[in-house]
Structure prediction request, 535 residues.
Amino acid sequence: MKALICILCPNGCALSVSDDQSEIAVTGQKCKRGLEFAIAETTNPTRTLCTTVKTIFPEMPVLPVRSATAIPKDRIFDVMTAINQVVVTEALGCGTPVITDVLGLGIDIIATASMITTQ
Amino acid sequence: MKQTDVIVIGGGPAGLAAALAAQRGGARTLLIEREPRLGGILKQCIHDGFGLVRFSEQLTGPEYAERDINAFKQAGIEALTTTFVTRIKKTATGFILTAVNQTGVLTITAKALVLATGCRERTARQVFIHGTRPAGIFTAGTAQHYINLLGQMPTKKCVILGSGDIGLIMARRLTLEGATVLGVYEAKATPSGLTRNLYQCLHDFDIPLHLSQTVTRVYGEERLTAVEVCAVDEAMQPISGTSQKIDCDALILSVGLIPENELAISLGVELDPKTKGPICNATLMTSVDGVFSCGNALHVNDLVDYVSESGQLAGTAAADFSHKQRVEIALTTDPNFAYLVPQRLDLNDTGTKTIVYFRSQQVLKNCDLIVMVNEREVLRKHYSHLRPPEMERLEVDFAHLNLTADSILSFKMEVH
Prediction:
């Protein structure tokens, strides 16, 4: 039996997961997304990574970015290292990829704000 | 002298929603923001989880803000940024507002005002920490500003005091950027933040949470070198013999938010000691005719979706505003409620649906919320779980209750 908290919405349902049999049983969820979360969390936990990248623009020295979809939880720090090597040199719009297919995970790192520059 | 119908003060999510709603309601609308950019605190809230209620999507703060800013710009609403309101005077017909910006002093008149001034963080001096006054003591929002907007790390090794959501979010953010977060200390016996943030911000990164423990002293001359932590009893008083010194270079505080109402107070707006925001009716009009309040200035919200909702309510009502007689009755609560908004109901303006926001005073399991009119039950709703950090929203139709000026309208909680 494993205790989890569903992070998909502010309800934060307390889930308990047991996989004694070959099947995973989940209780405590208020909606079906809790079941999906519990299965993912016990088999392949993922998280959306939100951080910033450096830019060359003094008006906006860092640009907020996130992974376009959730990345494997155990690769978070590897992806952070990859993101921290990037410097943005052009004015990007919200949603534009900053890194495509980061570390071969098949997931882009995208800008979450439009750059403001005087250039 | 510039003239307009509605002035919205504050360009965060509440102000943007209010201005859009006021403009749509046919009012000439002007928004005033003290910072160079619109978006308010969302600009630095780069984590996701915003907009789930409103857009059924998990957006980051800047993404959520950009949707409103784009709608605001498309609507062609006038905004004065880098402009600070210094004074508001009430007149017989409306308000005269004085503001300053790079062009000088501006005087603007309006028929109605929406105060969307947000909230401010409680500081170290407000939580009675003793010791020296070194550099290295930051509110969580200041640390967030340094990292997420300026790209500068304020610490290498820190202690966080307070388990509010911003503190939890910053524990994760600092860890991602390579800092060591030694622990989150919470004086109360229960965490203040949302459960999912305890899980994804602390548990994911093995950051310890110490309940019923607080920071009692800071050390260091130029820069903070250590903090003293101590166990506290139920009355939150330090227990002697339990203190412990922890070496670190920063103390980050997430010890509460207070609605910002300096302008409201200057106008004579009556505040609620429970919310620390204005006492409002269902249209979010304060005790002063023509002055509306919304967002975190009204009460501290945990979800931006409801900040936008209250902005929209206030903006719509501000555009509609005309001087007419109010017949207001109070919405009273029993001690199980930490607070309830709105605090009053104008019987001349009940509408078909009133949105009520409330928080419980403590964790309540398996309880019924009951609305009573003159001791007669008119509504009952069951809650399996109420937690003070999680605000509840309820829609009530008061119009069909035949309320009169001497009706007693009360909200009670029946705990099974």
Strands of chain A lie at 2-5, 14-18, 25-27, 46-47, 50-55, 62-67, 71-72, 87-88, 97-99, 109-111. Chain A has two helices and ten strands.
